[in-house]
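I am writing to request your help with a piece of structural work I have in hand. The matter concerns a single protein, recorded as an amino acid sequence and a row of backbone structure tokens. Could you please explain, in whatever detail you think fit, how the structure tokens follow from the sequence? Thank you for your consideration; the sequence and its tokens are set out here:
>
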Amino acid sequence: MAQEREIATRIVSLGDLQEIVAAIRAIAASQMQQALRSLEAIDRYSDAIREALSDAAQMLPREQRAATAVKPSRAGVIVFCAEHGLCGGFNERLARYAEQIRVEESAQFVLIVVGSRGGQICRERDLEPDLVLPMATHSAGVTAAARRLATEVYGMLNDGRIAGLEVVYAQHVEGEVMRIERRRLLPLEAPASGRQSAELPPLINLSPRRLFDEIAAEYLFAFLENAAMQSFFSENLMRFRTMEAARHNIESKNEELTRLARRLRQEAVTSEILDLISGAQALSFE
């Protein structure tokens, strides 16, 4: 009887846990849909900034045009992780990638981790970040997180703490759970324009150098926002699949406990029937 009560308590607990898992799964699915819609707008914005940067680069004097630069001796490496857990191996894979960079790179780098949970996992792997910034926990907060990151990066560049910048993030690819991308952002290489060169250059009210610098700053922010949103989508995709696996495990365990409870109940009933039969036989012999 005590074992039956214990099993019944566990079944109730599994039911409560299943409700929590279902809620987290639904939130992750909603965040994925919002992130996909935001990515469409961010991609259009990034394309427009990329074209503007290419056009601005063409207005610079030839000796000032951005060219392929030598890799700097001290670069900043931004790794986009998650603010919270419950997203499978999302943070662990990115932390391992950052650790791999440290092993492979002979030059020193400044490690910037976006996401408190990712920063904690990096510390557990003896990979101490130089800066940990919070990651957005909802789609509407991604732009603010990217802007905060861009402000920190501008400060490091102005102070001379870094001379280059690389970004590591999870890329959303159809048919894949998670693919890690590593892109060099600084030194800047002006993207090639897909448009035909205009016969007459556009009229501008700023010097070509200042125009290029301001568009370059906007290009940097657009790239960081895109990487942050890609990472946010991948994080919630991993969380959705983790919760889906947890749901299946809970259902399987629930079925197992239900079968066990039925078997114990049947054994108890059978035992009572046998006791009644034995008692009846004993009375008949008296």
